Amino acid sequence: VTIDLEACDGCKLCTIVCPANVLELYGDKGKKKVRVKDDNRGCISCNNCHAICANGAITATRHYDFVGYYRQLARGEFSMPRKF
Q1: Most buried by CB count within 10 Å: which residue of 59, 62, 67, 80?
Q2: Which region holds residue 75: left if phi is over 0, alpha if psi is between -120 and 50, else beta?
Q3: CA-to-CA distance for 24 and 12, rounded, in angstroms?
Q4: What integer pLDDT is reported at residue 72 of this predicted model?
């Protein structure tokens, strides 16, 4: 996960939707930004943070590679979810 701190407004939505709980807010009140936790070992490349960020401050840069019995489908560039 790559975060553009200039574009981040500290809304906290990405920390809420992250199923792996790897994002956190830091900084003084009124100037908070998001960052990846220091002990980040659990990002599953779900791209939820990118999808919910209204400012486009977050991008996922690497896919999670499942091994074993799982097969990757439609691997490629991340894209925004469909709008209904």
Answers
A1: 59
A2: beta
A3: 8
A4: 62
Q: How far, in Å, CA of 50 to CA of 64, rounded?
A: 15
Q: Residue 63: which pLDDT band, with cuts at 50, 70 and 90?
A: low
Residue holding tokens 């097969």?
Answer: 71
* pLDDT given at position 7: 93
9 CB-near residues (< 8 Å, 6+ apart)? 55, 57
Q: Which of 13, 66, 83 is nearest to 75 (CA)?
A: 66
Task: Write out the two tokens for 28.
Answer: 């003084």
DSSP state of 58: E
CA atoms within 13 A on the CB side of 53: 26
Which pLDDT score, from 0 to 100, does residue 60 have? 78
Work out the percent of the chain whose per-residue pLDDT is above 70: 73
